[in-house]
Task: structure prediction
Amino acid sequence: MARTTKKTAVILAALALLATATALLIYGPLLSSQSSYIDPADKSLVASGKPIYLTYCASCHGANLEGQADWRIRKSNGRLPAPPHDESGHTWHHADSVLMEITRNGLVPGVTAPEGYVSDMPAYSKLLNDHQIRAVLAYIKSSWPKQARDRQKQITQQ
Ligand code: HEC
Result:
């Protein structure tokens, strides 16, 4: 009787180990790819980001990433127009984690904006998954000249 219990315990332990190993195998690369640098040299990522940009972002940020007119001047409702995403804007001043956060949730007071801040930037976490957001950001980054890319990579890895 005692032997059977011991055997069962060994089998259960082995199964638990197997489950952990499988989970690590599946989620390990996923987790690391979710937190790693979004690489604008990744051609397939950039290519998949372009149609997402044109569908979800271009209406405000411009088909050529040029942003809205007079984007530095607040509108009569106190909100800012959409800034350009090319090198003339300040998207490249932010780390990947910040760009992901803003695209997922918009500008959140106390997180990515001052308290009480109101913004027209929509939240995309219900429309786009993290892979799609990484792709759209890779597409945006691919428009930047080398200097801005290098600087933004530094900021991301700090
Ligand atoms: C309805 C218009 C609108 C759409 C559509 C839109 N944005 Fe925005 N976005 C804005 C506005 C306005 C701001 C400036 C927010 C502010 O400071 O109040 C902004 C700011 C941002 C910023 C911060 C830029 C910086 O330099 O601080 C990022 C990143 C961004 N948007 C990404 C995206 C992405 C990616 C998409 C598409 C998936 C998108 N936006 C779609 C209006 C829009």
Residues 2-35 form the longest helix (34 residues).
